[in-house]
Amino acid sequence: MVDAEVKALATVAAGRDFIVGKHVYGNLYGIARERLWDRKGLENLVREAAARANMHLVELKSWEFHGFHGGVSVIALVLESHIALHTWPDYGYATVDVYTCGARSDPWKAFNHIVSVLKPEHYIVHYADRSSIPNATLSPPR
Q: pTM of the entire structure?
């Protein structure tokens, strides 16, 4: 069990219920341009990431934008919340946002899968506990 799940079960056993919210988001730099224009590949990547994170896909949409600062955006609505991937191929840059509600899903698995497939030269990642009680997920796994 992950820390959040243990804390959730203990809190529910004590007669209180709460939302476990885990938010992993980051910036990816130095990605091959052709990867960032591959709309179907990016859609499949987000689908795979959701499955690896134990998230349940409700709907997936993508858009391709051309011209100045163009790129691809993929948004997955999942039962647990969402995954968003935005690319700027001319800059070799992408942003990733994975937000889950519930102790059984793991946004780190989704984020790490996306990073492993896009293969950035480097990236910056952030984590926010978005739970309805403070510090429900103090030690997030990576």
A: 0.85
In a domain, 142, yes or no: no
The predicted-structure confidence for 49-88, as pLDDT tens digits, reads as follows 999 999 999 999 999 999 889 999 999 999 999 999 999 9
130 CB-near residues (< 8 Å, 6+ apart): 21, 22, 23, 99, 101
101 in active site: yes
Domain boundaries, position 39: 3-129
Q: State the catalytic residue, choosing from 66, 69, 73, 86.
A: 86
DSSP letter (8 states) at residue 79: T
Structural domain total, the chain = 1
CATH code, domain carrying 58:
3.60.90.10
56 belongs to the catalytic site: no
